Amino acid sequence: MKSWLDSVYSDGTGMFVSDPTPEIGETVEITVRFFADAPVKRVMVCSLPNGAERYDEAVKTKEAGGLAYYTAKVPVNEYRIQYQFDLVTEDTIYFYTQAGITTYLPDRSHDFVLLTDYRQPDWVKGAVFYQIFPERFANGDPSNDVENGEYEYMGYASIKMDSWDAKPLTYEEGHGVDFFGGDLDGITQKLDYLQELDVTALYLNPIFSAYSSHKYDCVDYFHVDEHFGGDEALERLCTAVHQRGMKIILDISINHTGILHHWVKEGKPFYFKKADGSLQGWWDLPTLPVLDFRNEELRELIYRGDGAVLRKWLRPPYGIDGWRFDVADVFARNNEVQLADEVWQEICDAIREENPDAFIIGEEWGDCTKFLQGHLWNTPMNYFGFGRIIRQFAGLGDLFLERREAFRDVPYQMTASDVVGRTQEHYAVIPQVIADCQMNLFDSHDIARMHNYDTINFGRWKCAVIAQLLWTGIPCIYYGDEVAIDGYTWHDAGYRYPMPWERMSEEGEKHRSVIRTMTKLRRETDAFAQGGRKVLVAEGRILAVARFYGEQVYVGVLSMEEEEKEIAIPLNIVGAKAPAGSVDEFGVNFDWRESDEGAVLRVEKGSGLLFRC
Length: 613
Description:
The protein is globular, with a radius of gyration of 25 Å. Helix content is 21%, strand content 25%. By secondary structure, it is an alpha/beta fold. Strands 1, 2, 3, 4, 5, 6, 7 and 8 form an 8-stranded antiparallel beta sheet that branches. It contains 15 helices and 31 strands.
């Protein structure tokens, strides 16, 4: 039997805060709920205005679904309002923060947080991202294709692949200059397809002038690569995207350029140098020299100046909706030269001067809490708080640890408790409005697609998709995942196959159905678009999570077990009684029976369910 403590819940969504993005001078109503028969005598909300503790007593405002709701009025007097709940019983004081409940006074690092005068982009609620590797998505204009031997890059001639259905070449085979002809007009021509998939925002890998297929070796930030259609093609794409009410985010690496960038040729003092005078490369790659932001002229060109690159593409006629920054984890960090804090603040300020609603994504694979407090990024590529977790739970190695020989062969299987703990490490230290922006992906151009592993069957892959609804934030689909695109796992060329427009496998039809259901629920259901989240079960390798908003309650069950299991789900702790039927949102029949606390389900091995209560 669950304790009344398991029913305690609050968050920063509109269900528990009268205004999740208040202005200074407002008074907000903050609510917490728990079992109506809980032995709680008083409820206090402890905030820290001007650094001093303030206690506001919460009063009971309603009962619903067996839960009592207590609300306090808290004045908003500064940029960041943080608070925790103190629940007073006959013999104990319980302290409740985003990290959970303790019987001792906790530190304030896990407090609930409201950000005042914060601009939350209005399109975040219900948003669905779709990541596109432009060279492999669609060829809308064959006249701009790279030709065989059109140029040489680092001694290797460009290669035009004979067929869109060919396999991409490994670096040893193609040296990064194998081309299929994908371009921006191709993306524009496929916007109907993307809208039918309920995609609302595009994230494009780099499109600026460069010689490689991946374009992270930029030679000119101020022009779109001519083989992608040039600046005019971007204008056409942005216009079409915005006419449909969609958004577009561009990728850029300002940590380094390509070695053939004109700044290198001109001898600009924009780069770090080694003791021998040669340019220092990112990861010691000589083709990717690292930029040195001690140089004021460089700062003017990148973000400060009126015509700076980060400003140019945010303005008409393009009006992109934000930036994704490559290798943001190491940017402006170089041994004794540590400028990250200073330069990131200046960059984010410059971007929001151009567009206060601009969305900023940093490529960071680990903990990046300090960037997620409301004044810098909206989100990382959320590998740390989602992608790395769900992949390991499904049976793959951790994306970072598996790179190290010392860890690679350890056969540990992540438990559901591990999943809860890892997720909490990320979400319990960021404000709700930032949590709502988290870009939750499990595949990308940098990691092998889950479904291409022999050990990941359809059921486990489907669990990862369902998880995108169960974690707070924005689901991100990597192009082709929705059709079970081909690929292999041992080289990044295998993660970047051309989109199979002309052929759809039976497996692809199954994938598309799952993705389509996920995106429709995200777009049309408040519980997934802006709702709360509570873990109901974490036993062995089975995880059950509730998402809820208002009277909506949905429960997702993810099983990575090797055999069928029966689990008891305490639906009463989220105010629900039983599943609404025996067919889940994906059309799967499941067996369940009522219990005193909710329902007992039979869960098949390696499978996922999502049902409404």
